[in-house]
Amino acid sequence: MDDNKPKASSTVSKTTIIDSSRIAERAKSHDSKIIHHNGLNLERRFSNFRMRNHGHHSMSTHTDNTTPVTVTQPLKPMRYVCHFNVPVSLRKSRLLSRQNANIKQWMIGKRQFNENPKEGIRWLVDNNLIQNTPEHVATFLFHETGLSKRAIGDYLGEKDDSHIEVLKHFAHMFDFFSTDIVEALRRYLFTFLLPGEAQKIDRIMEAFAQRYYECNPDVYANAEVCFILSFAIIMLNTSLHNKSARFGGPFTYEKFVSSLNEAILRQHMPDINLIKNIYDNIKNNELKLPEDDIDLSNVSAKIKEGNSTIIKEGWLWKQGGRVRQWRRRWFVITDGCLFYYESRTEVDNPRGIISLIDVGVREIEDDRTKPFCFELFPLTGEKVKTTKPILGEIGKATEGHHTVYRMSASSEDERKDWIRALRIGSQNELPKQRSS
After folding, report:
1. Domain 24-284, what fold?
2. Cα–Cα distance between 257 and 84 in angstroms, integer?
3. Cβ atoms of residues 310 and 402 within 8 Å
4. Which of the chain's termini has less CB crowding within 10 Å, N or C?
5. What are the structural domain ranges in the chain?
6. Model's pTM, two decimal places?
7. How many angstroms separate the CA atoms of 299 and 148, rounded?
8. 3-state DSSP call for residue 282?
């Protein structure tokens, strides 16, 4: 967290990079699902695009004879145009719901969503935590912290009518006015992980293309051209920046233009200067998909904005990992994470973010220099999942290596209070009413 650290609508190029072989392997595996699953298919899709253009395809998500809901059908009278015009009732629905709901219920609902998006949304609706409308579900997916980006992508890509309505409202929460298509795509793809299924990717990218064209109708001929360009950008990015997934060698500028010429009708071909800008943009600045499944940095932004429910905050002493030195840090428990800072005023620049999922907490014997000690330990695996910023490198972070995290409180009561709060934060204990 630097001030330049991207939020939900920031550019993907500045997303957190976890320097870990295990995380890199998972990211590589996910990339391969997208690239190999779609890499060769993308070239086939260009031939499909030609057929679709010449055949005046309408970007429908169904193939039967019923009257389907499509991504490109206009929304019913919109109550908002882009994310900063979402009505107060929607923008504040999460906060108002939280004020009247048990924190535990929110955490259960979000965990259920992360494990099974459909069941999670149903559970949240049944427990009156969100309203069962496309607008409110889309707002929940767009604004809520602590959600799995993979789960969001899977949910948005579903083919039934209710999910398509949510997808359209989700796309309409982006302000793409006067924004370059590459930068718009970076922002869009930062908010979720593309699913591995080709049809889901099609629907998600169609929603992006439709929204982008609505915001910039004078730049490209139609939404279909934006759709083709968005896939071409992904192909170009893969070809230029992923050596293991190159098919037919890296795209040269000439090959990129040739591919577009084959896919887009001549009268709809974008200006050559726009195409050159797209190519140079991707060549010089890789489009990176988010690597963290749960966007911890966005939680930090919500803390700064005051839009996150804080279970507990205060000063603790923390013991270092490699160097067993005690340092005083300001800690905040919120959204299933434990943040720590050098001072309570620097909430936009955490020194570390500890995920409380599958983490236990217990009292331990006092250190010879620090009393009232307790520690976090992993319930599964060997390490506590942690993200730490790399000092001096904006937007980059590394994975922590702690097998336990040891802290020291100021008193026995404070130790018990922190242990209770951490168990609530990790969903291992119901919150208890304080005695008056």
Report:
1. Arf Nucleotide-binding Site Opener; domain 2 (1.10.1000)
2. 36
3. no
4. C
5. 24-284, 296-425
6. 0.56
7. 12
8. helix
